Each structure stands twice: as C-alpha cells, then as structure tokens.
Amino acid sequence: MIANPIAAILAAQRADGHWEKPGPGYATKYRGTVWQLIFLDQLGADPNDHRIRRAAEYVLAHTPARSGGFGMSGAATLAAPPPSAVFHCLNGNLLRALIGFGWLDDPRVQRAIDWQARAITGEGMERWHASGTSGPAFGCAANDQLPCAWGAIKALRGLARVPAGRRTPIVSRAIGAGAAFLLSRDPLDADYPAGWGNARPSGSWFRLGFPSAYVADVLENLEVLADLGHARDPRLARAVGWLLKKQDDLGRWRNEYAYNRKTWVDFEHQGQPSKWVTLRACRFLRAALA
Predict the structure, then answer these.
(1) Is 90 exceeded by the pLDDT of residue 78?
(2) Is the preceding peptide bond at 5 cis, omega within 30 degrees of 0?
(3) CATH code at 247?
C-alpha cells in the first residue's frame, strides 16, 4: 500500500473518494474513479484501508443506473447514468472489484449481480437499448448489436466472484450460458461475432497485458474459464500451448499492453518482462496443468 502504483493512485484521490472529476467516474480513461477501483483490486490493495472503502462507497453512490447495473458516464455531474449506459464490460469489472473488496452483501451490488445475470439470459429484462446492452447473450451496441466476447469475459469474471453457495438459480444459468459461449470458439481462432464488417479479432486479443480495463486478451479468456472450473477443458489445449510458447527463457511473460502514459503512474514498461502478466499466466497454468 505504500509502493507504486497503489501509492500514486491513492495520492491522486480526492477527499470525498473520487478521482479526476466528480460523478459516475468513467472519464477519463484511465484516470477516472471507476478505473481506479478496478485497478486497485487487480493490484491487491487492502480492502480495509479507509481510502479503498471511501472509493467503493463513492462508486456505489454515483455509478448505479436505475436498471440496477453500473453505468458508463463521464459527465462531471452527480446525475445517475441512464439504463442505456450499462454495458457488460464495466458492470462485470466493477462487480469483480466490489465483491473482491468485501461489498457482496451491499444491496446495490446485489442489484448489479441480478442485472448482470438477467442481461445474459434475457429473463425478466423489461427493455433492451440500442445504445447500450442491446439484447441477451452479450449483445452490445459497441459490437454492432452482436454478442461481445470482451463483454462476456468481464461479466463472467464478476459473476465468478460470487461464492458458489451464494449464487441464485439465474446467476448459475447465466454463468452456464456464458461459459458455453466462450467455449464455443477456440480462443486462438477467436472467431466470436465481430461487428462493423470486421473479419478478424482485434489485435489486442493476442497482446497479454496488465492492468486490465475493458479490453480482454486470450489469457483473460482462459482465466475466467479456469475461475468457472473449465481450466482442463480439451478445447483450450491450443491456447495453453500458445501461452507456454510466449514464455521467455527465464520463465517470464512480457507486458504487451501496459497502458503507459494513460494511468496515474505507469505500472510497468511496455514490451518488457512483467511480474503481473507472469503471475496471471502462472495462476492459470497451475489450474490447467498441475
């Protein structure tokens, strides 16, 4: 907690718990409030630190939309985001962080969990929004209304943090449907639905990085499937082999997506050996191969 990048992030926090500017906290990327909470969780920050609790309380007070999900808004006002601003990626990222920091029982977190599950299965959803989550099974306006693999990964990483004994039937159904969607494609082919005429997956998919924002990579796909008990699924064999080949002679992986000059402080150097990406890879490989 006294070393960078955690120290630098917390030094930039305002007295009421926000970063950059007040309001729901999506802007700016990646210095706004929601990103700091997401990154601090990934860095293993102390959930009992008063600054972490203040940040969580600020997000819970300003980021939920009327639908129950956490919404994207960069407005420097205290108005709640509209339901059309709720996307799988941010909702899942914030669920993972807030649950990790000990807020599972907060009613606002419970509402966001329920929204996440219903947005995946379609059960009980009153309305879809052409400018946001546009349909069940991860349909997303940012992906030309098609199911979004990045959004699926983030959503499932959030739901995976709900302890198995605390999962409602609809959460369990959503997890099952999401895992089936991710396993329906080989991670190395990554031929998930792609909008706007794209015939190839984003190049970012094959660049392993840290921290993780809304972009997902092959390893995060493997990580969430491991979280859900699928680390040894034979359909992941090619991706496991690809991951092993990216290891260098000293056993390390490089940070190929480091967000340099975009965060309050650089976490690591772009393209250099990375303790964080190496930790990510080793955690997955222990589940897949041990």
Answers:
(1) no
(2) yes
(3) 1.50.10.20
The length of the chain, given as a count of residues:
290
Q: How many domains does the chain have?
A: 1
Q: Where is 133: in which H helix or E strand?
A: strand 133-135
38: number of Cβ within 10 Å: 25
Is the alpha carbon torsion for 130, 131, 135, 140 positive or negative?
positive
Q: Which SS3 state, helix, strand or coil, does residue 147 take? A: strand
Q: Is residue 1 part of a domain?
A: no
Burial 127-164 (b: 16+ CB within 10 A, else e): ebbeebbbbbbbbbbbbeebbbbbbbbbbbbbbbbbee
φ/ψ of residue 78, rounded to 5: -95, 10
The two structure tokens encoding residue 252: 């390390």
Domain that holds residue 273: 6-289
Q: What is the pLDDT of residues 232-287, one digit of tens each?
A: 999 999 999 999 999 999 999 999 999 999 999 999 999 999 999 999 999 999 99
Domain contains 166: yes
The answer to whether the beta carbons of residues 28 and 84 sit under 8 Å apart is no
Q: Is 163 among the domain residues?
A: yes
The answer, as to whether pTM is greater than 0.85, is yes
Which tokens is 204 given?
A: 């970012």
